[in-house]
Amino acid sequence: MSESVYKVVIHFAAEYGQLEYDLEEKKVSVELSDSAHRQAVEQYLAGSHVIEDADGNDLRTFHAKTIKPAESLDNLKLALTRMWYHTGVYVDWSRPTH
User: Fold this and answer.
1) Considering the entire predicted model, what is its pTM?
2) N or C: which end of the chain has fewer CB within 10 A?
């Protein structure tokens, strides 16, 4: 696996796929055989989002933050924590990728 590509498993129901983020090119690619769910993920990650982020000194302090997921790995990871709500596709943080 290239160190310049971040990978994570995604799924809905019993269908699994993969999301890849090229750190150098700042591009996201989605591998999911269901086209409707794949397009939903692609559209969500291509957009701009206002996300309440716990970026204070404790977990109870939130600030609105406008992000574009593909701009950085940190933005992508933050967007992925909310992706299921918008797309119905979950991130399986514990499953290894190949």
Assistant:
1) 0.88
2) C
